[in-house]
């Protein structure tokens, strides 16, 4: 008796539908943690709440992050990477000098409004860092990295537009970041307290371009 061979050439392999990919799960956890931590604060929030918000088990969270502090530090990496991209985009797209500073200020104000959750989270990081040495050390190192990156952007911007800044790049970065954080806090408390052009006017004044 002879059999008929069945050729599988050209056929698609069966689709495997299993657990979500590790990176997909990690992203879901980070997105949920951002929402929970910014709403509840890092101290008050629990890993159980993050897992529930992500639609995952607590075990799935712990399979990607060793602890709540580890999750906090991963979110901080996301936050700082976003800030660096925003700063580069702002300073690389404006032209002119005085108008450029006003344009930069307007874009930074937009970033403040659209990134309100991140601003709340940064404040929560700072508070959490006073109680967790690992978080404080990591935040300090990453803020230094951010300041260095922003300082380089500011120095390049000043050179391109012929601006004589009253501070060196590092000091200017501290001023810009502190101004951004401070205006974000004031705006979060009273959204009408910060005029849309205030950031730009302050930057222009600091650069002697009023």
TrEMBL record:
The keyword Transcription applies. InterPro entries: BetI_C (IPR039538), Homeodomain-like_sf (IPR009057), HTH-type_TetR-like_transc_reg (IPR050109), HTH_TetR (IPR001647), Tet_transcr_reg_TetR-rel_C_sf (IPR036271). It comes from the Bacteria. Residues 1-24 are annotated as: Disordered. Residues 1-11 have a biased composition (Polar residues). Keywords: DNA-binding, Repressor, Transcription, Transcription regulation. Signal peptide: none annotated. Residues 46-65 bind DNA. This is TetR/AcrR family transcriptional regulator. It comes from Haloechinothrix aidingensis. The lineage of its organism: Bacteria, Bacillati, Actinomycetota, Actinomycetes, Pseudonocardiales.
């Amino acid at each position: 008796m002879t059999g008929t061979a069945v050729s599988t050439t050209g056929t698609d392999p069966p689709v495997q539908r299993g657990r979500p990919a590790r990176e997909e799960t990690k992203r879901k956890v980070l997105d949920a943690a951002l929402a929970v931590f910014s709403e509840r604060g890092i101290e008050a929030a629990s890993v159980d709440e993050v897992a529930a918000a992500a639609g995952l088990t607590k075990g799935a969270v712990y399979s990607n992050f060793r602890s709540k502090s580890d999750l906090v530090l991963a979110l901080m990496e996301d936050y700082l990477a976003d800030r660096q991209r925003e700063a580069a985009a702002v300073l690389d797209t404006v032209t002119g000098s005085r108008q450029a500073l006003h344009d930069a200020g307007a874009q930074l104000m937009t970033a403040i409004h659209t990134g309100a959750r991140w601003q709340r989270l940064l404040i929560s990081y700072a508070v959490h860092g006073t109680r967790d040495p690992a978080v404080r050390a990591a935040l300090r190192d990453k803020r230094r990295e951010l300041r260095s990156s922003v300082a380089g952007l500011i120095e390049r911007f000043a050179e391109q537009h012929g601006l004589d800044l009253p501070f060196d790049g590092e000091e200017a970065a501290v001023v810009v970041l502190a101004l951004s954080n401070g205006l974000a806090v004031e705006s979060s408390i009273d959204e009408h307290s910060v005029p849309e052009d205030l950031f730009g006017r302050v930057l222009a004044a600091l650069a002697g371009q009023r």
